[in-house]
Structures are given as structure tokens and as C-alpha cells.
Write a structure and sequence with these properties.
Elements (H helix, E strand, L loop, with lengths): L3 H10 L3 E6 L6 E5 L1 H18 L5 E6 L5 H16 L3 E7 L8 H15 L3 E9 L4 E8 L1 H15 L1
Parallel strand pairs: 3-4
Antiparallel strand pairs: 1-2, 4-6, 5-6
Length: 158
């Protein structure tokens, strides 16, 4: 336990800064350190931790209205995997030529996809026909389901 004046003098002699670490304790705890270097290391740590984070990306899955059942199930599996990884998924039906005269086929497909993914995702936007030839839905993953899926994968590896 040093007096404030002695601690400041000691810091000046060593070309360091006197930094208060715990102000709530009695007596307050201080430390001798190079404050510029300390701040530099802190920002470096923050940058490194931000680097590991990843925002959710929007992935797209494209389907035709006359897609076969098994092919659609495969696309739904891919969508499920992407949702478990934390990405948003846009599923859209692309109409070609005369297929555009039967939008009910696209609605039917999107309804099946919605039913199959409702346990892991929520519908972010309702059905939108962008150009008359494209009909799509955006799914957002449920946070709790993502955690459960990751924990299950970790248990499988062990």
C-alpha cells in the first residue's frame, strides 16, 4: 500500500502510467503500466474476437414448378442444413415459358417447403412474385434449434 504521490513518482521514474484497476475496493487498486500499449492490445483482442463472429448470410435455393418429389426433398435437406448453420434461406420457384400461367404449382411447392421447415425456421417474408416468373419465400432460423443442432453435432463427434 503506497501513497498516491509515491505511486505517481514511481510511475514517472519508470516512464509508465498509474492506472486505477479497481476503484470500488478499499483502498483503490492501481497498476503501473504503459497505457498506450495496453489500449493497443485491447483493441487487438477485440478485433480478433470480432473476426470469429459471422453474420447470417442469405443463401438461395432454386426450384422449378415441375420438380420431382425426391429432388424437392433433397433441396429441403440442403435448406435445413443451411438453417442449422445459422444462415437465412430464400427458396424460390422459377417459372419458364407457359409454366407462368400456373402459379398455383409454385404456391403448392412453397407450402410444402414451409411445412417441412416449420420446426427449424420461421417465415421471414410472405410469398413474393418479383418479376412474374419468380416466386419466393425467405426463412429465418430459430435460435434455439440452432443451438440444439450444434450440441447434437458436438455429441456425435465425441
Amino acid at each position: 500500500m503506497l501513497a498516491t504521490e509515491k505511486a505517481l513518482q514511481l510511475a514517472r521514474d519508470r516512464n509508465l502510467d498509474l492506472v486505477e484497476v479497481a476503484s470500488t475496493s478499499v483502498p483503490p487498486v492501481c497498476r503501473l503500466l504503459d497505457y498506450g500499449k495496453f489500449r493497443y492490445e485491447q483493441t487487438k483482442k477485440e478485433r480478433k474476437s470480432r473476426k470469429g463472429q459471422r453474420g447470417s448470410l442469405l443463401k438461395e435455393i432454386r426450384v422449378r414448378p415441375r420438380v420431382k418429389e425426391h429432388d424437392l426433398e433433397t433441396k429441403i435437406k440442403v435448406a435445413r442444413k443451411l438453417l442449422e448453420e445459422g444462415d437465412k434461406v430464400k427458396v424460390f420457384v422459377v417459372f419458364r415459358g407457359r409454366e407462368a400461367t400456373h402459379p398455383e404449382l409454385g404456391v403448392k411447392l412453397l407450402q410444402k417447403v414451409t411445412d417441412d421447415l416449420k420446426d427449424i425456421a420461421t417465415l421471414d417474408s410472405s410469398s413474393s412474385t418479383e418479376t412474374g416468373r419468380i416466386m419466393g419465400l425467405v426463412f429465418t432460423p430459430l435460435a434455439t434449434r440452432i443451438k440444439e443442432a450444434k450440441e447434437a453435432k458436438v455429441k456425435e463427434k465425441v
